[in-house]
(2Fe-2S)-binding protein (Saccharopolyspora elongata), 178 residues
Amino acid sequence: MSERHLIGLNVNGATHEALVEPRKTLLDALRHDLGLTGTHVGCEHGVCGACTVLVDGEPVRACLMFAVQAENSDIRTVESLGENGELSDLQRSFRDHHGLQCGFCTPGFLMLAEGFLAQQPNADREEIREAVSANLCRCTGYQTIVDAIDATAACRRSTSDTEPACPGGNSAEKEATP
Ligand code: FES
Ligand code: FES
């Protein structure tokens, strides 16, 4: 058995220690060592995107990164999206626009979209469509996923009363709430 290394992983704002073999993927460390099973295992070779997490804000396929490489990075998984048992605006939008059926691919799409919208808050529909083409969904079809992300982007940009209300409020309102 190869030597194991004690590493610290900064995940969703908390530091976790894990004793891992050098070959262990970030995906396996998240699921098996940290118990964060919201990140799903699909193809395990970088094609489907079901394992997408944010590493220093960038959407990354966790099956293609070794856990030891992720030390000293800020990692966000789908478990970081909700707060106090409430869905995030993006999660609500997926629900409201029927952006999922079986839900297997959904954590990956959510994290892909979260990272994308942080980098490109003014993305138009075509840019969103291009971004989500990185991940595979076998059952929903992409139309409603694009609808959900597009609606979230519009809500987050919304600053005037004339814009359509975001279900559950937009992120600016959330931050202003004590
Ligand atoms: S499980 Fe990582 S890309 Fe498919
Ligand atoms: S919702 Fe079933 S694979 Fe995407």
